[in-house]
Amino acid sequence: MRRAFSAVTIVAALALAVSACGGGDGGTAAAPSQAAPADPSKISGEITWWDTVRPDSEGPTFQALIKDFEAKYPNIKVKYVNVPSDQAQNQFQTAAQAGTGAPDVIRSEVAWTSQFASLGYLQPLDGSRAVENESDFLPGPLSSTKYNGKAYAVPQVTDTLALLYNKRLLKEAGHEKAPTTVEELKQVALDVKKKTGVNGLALNVDSYFLLPFMYGEGGDLLDVQNKKITVNSPANVKAMATVADLVTSGAAPKPAIQDSYANAMTALKDGKAAMIYNGPWALAEVYQGKEFKDKENLGIAPVPAGSVKAGAPTGGWNLAIYAGSKNIPAATEFVRFMSTPESQAKVAKEISLLPTRASAYDNPDVQGNKDVAVFKPIMDTATARPWIPEGGQLFQPLLEGYQALVGGKTTPEEMLKTVDEKYRGIFKDWS
Amino acid sequence: MALSTGRASGTTRDLTAGAESARGRGGREPGPFRRAASRHWYAWAMVAPVVLVTALLIGWPLARGVYLSLTDATEANIGRTIGVNVIPSTYEFVGLENYVGILTSGLFWEKLTWTVVWTVACVALHYGLGLGLALMLNRRVAFRSAYRLLLILPWAIPGFVSAFIWRYLYNSDFGVINAMLRAAGLGPVGWLDDPTLAKVAVIAVNVWMGVPFMMVAVLGGLQSIPGELYEAAEVDGATPWQRFRFITLPGLRTVSSTVVLLGTIWTFNMFPVIYLITGGGPGSSTEILVTYAFREAFTSVRNYSNSAAWGVIILLLLVVLAVVYRRSLRKQGEVW
Which residue among A30, A94, B195, B272 is buried most deeply as judged by most CB within 10 Å? Predict the structure, then answer.
């Protein structure tokens, strides 16, 4: 008896390891109808919004916007929850699938939107009050809100990558202007290292930050039109060789792989590195650094061009409504309010996030913001990405390859071959 | 009760007839099961709630996990209705396909090898260091209780907190460890950036976190060994090594066998250390079986069936380990 019992307990204890896996399929009650009441200001109730901005540098601006919204709609309360951007996707999927704990409104990254929509988590917005004056939105961000031709979100902010640099350090190294090609980038970085002793370029080991190098040589990850996997192309091999050369030549120090992003940012902020690739979302944080107490010291330039062009990925965020929300009318009004030109202008003015509405750029507040003015032409280098549900799976294989490349464990050819193999596992019927 | 006799009135005769049929007519001797049930009914009643709760909390998810592992269920094809969106359920039973896929992939064997190395290295160091510290603390030294408190500290800190602190210590550009190396005139080391070093780094953290438990457990074992044995051995002229070898180790055997088994299972499934310090990186070199199963289950479109299959495989591995371990202990005359 005792022996049998202990065997049972062992198995039971071990079973705990497995029991965590397994998806529930909690159904939710049918949502209230989409029809807006006669007077929107009469809508009442509480809604939850998951925001993904940095709570210290960007959060207060959005909380102030919520105050404005609540003043306009006195019967609606908005619960603001800040979820780190690297966890929001996962947490939303868990909550939406389980049918409990999901927010009414989520700030969804452009690449997540089609995935959420394909899984049935998002409320279709065509013809609702959430999408107002659709033609005013910039085409790039707007395309990311569509899945199978239907709108599932509203563009909130857009962004792309640029070269952020420390003007003082470049000047000390004898360069008045930012480098415009990758060859110049290498040269400037080496000069900075030689003349000032600090690092020229801090690389962030992340797949997204590889894209400017690929686009620059005319490469890409996929050709969605023809259902082709194009990651293992001569253009991309050349791009990866360029990246590897930046590290081996000493233009960039061997980058940290763990906490890569944070380390590169700290290096720029503390004047330990002169240049990094980053987007407008990073500006509020960069200005907190001791090197940029004088904002004039920060230079922002388009990403250096490869042999073909200067190209950086289109990024940004959308606002989407959870299909299982108990208060869709209030959520709809909230999304509508957050994406008006006035709201977007306010955000752009305070924390330099780029509006997705063309008309917002005519707002004097936005025109008065130097960073937005600088970024507007850089957006012309923004290269559209395919908005497909599998988009989120492209980054992990590329990241593992990038890590091995800067660690000197693989060659550009080998790296892309491996990535290509892994992509073929994701897109089984592509050529 | 047999009250559904079709009559409108339930008379006493119906009731007694019902009761009789429940007791079994004809006066046959009750079977062994029934005898046990009538004699030990209170015992069954006592364990019933526990059995019920265990079945609900563990048995049901376990059964569902096993079932899912035999299908091709993913987040995309498990049916559900969310508000206005209705997604039909289209997942199918595929038998052992997931298992075959996992066991024929080089990835699984690679991860299994590293998981075994990680488990053996961690448990050996846990136990060795724990035993050493326990022996030191078992003697009369000044400030003994202060030492004990300090040594228990790593265990008292929540796992994720220590994991984050270690991650900062290891940071290649701004970490304390590299700052010390620089100050000593040595070059910085990418602790978490090189596959081999990252493996060493995570093992070091896990050892740091796991030693206190072993130490406390072994200390308890040491204090239960009667002092007379040592005195008698000393009278017989045994060397310190012989005393350790022939009194201490046999005396600790029960405690050791238990904590080593527990430690093995915990370490095998030590999710937070790996996930929070390296995230499985660089590449996926520090990914152990459980963290990989998690990655399968929680990235992009979630693959429930495949991750459930990983989970079942991990469970089977541990069950086999536990059974073999207990067998070998029984051979040595241990009572479990």
Answer: B195
Q: Does B284 touch chain A (CB under 8 A)?
A: yes
In B103-162, the residues whose Cβ lies within 8 Å of chain A are: none
Q: Judge whether B63 is closer than 8 Å to chain A, CB to CB.
A: no
pLDDT given for residue A408 in this prediction: 87
Chain B residues 237-256 with CB within 8 Å of chain A: none
With H, G, I as helix, E, B as strand and everything else as coil, classify residue A71: helix
B91 part of a folded domain:
no
Domain boundaries, chain A: 42-160+315-380, 162-312+390-426
The DSSP 8-state label assigned to residue A199 in this structure reads E
Partner-chain contact B279 A13, CB within 8 Å = no
The CATH homologous superfamily of the domain defined by A162-312+390-426? Periplasmic binding protein-like II (3.40.190.10)
Instruction: Identify the helix (H) or strand (E) that includes residue A222.
Output: strand A222-223
Residue from the list A94, A121, A258 with its beta carbon closest to the beta carbon of B278 = A258
Instruction: Confirm whether B175 is domain-assigned.
Output: yes
Arithmetic mean of pLDDT, A293-316: 93
- The answer to whether residue B110 is domain-embedded is yes
**Residue B168 domain-assigned (yes or no):** yes
Element (DSSP H or E) covering residue A100: none
Q: Which of the residues A18, A113, A257 would you substitute to probe the B interface, choosing the one with the greatest number of B C-beta atoms within 10 Å?
A: A18
- Which of B1, B33, B26 is CA-nearest to residue B15? B1
Residue type, B55: A
Q: Residue B308: closest CA among chain A residues belongs to which residue?
A: A21
Nearest CA in chain A to B290: A17
> Which CATH number do you get for residue B230?
1.10.3720.10
pTM beyond 0.90: no
Q: Does the beta-carbon distance from B304 to A10 stay under 8 Å?
A: no
Instruction: Give the whole-angstrom CA distance, residue B300 versus residue A41.
Output: 38
Q: Which of A328, A333, A279, A325 is nearest to A301 (CA)?
A: A279
The beta-carbon neighbor of B83 closest among A11, A25, A323 is A323
Measured between CA atoms, the residue of chain A closest to residue B61 is A19
- Number of independent structural domains in chain B: 1
**Rg of chain A (C-alpha set):** 24
The amino acid present at B92, given as its one-letter code, is E
Work out the mean pLDDT of chain A and round it to a whole number. 88
Q: Which CATH number fits domain A42-160+315-380: 3.30.1360.70, 3.40.190.10, 3.40.50.300, 3.40.50.150?
A: 3.40.190.10
State the residue range of the domain holding B141. 106-331
- Written as six digits, the tokens of B334 are 């241990």
pLDDT one-digit tens code per residue, B279-331: 887 888 899 999 988 887 887 788 889 999 999 999 999 999 989 988 888 88
Portion 113-132 of A in contact with B at CB < 8 A: 115, 118-124
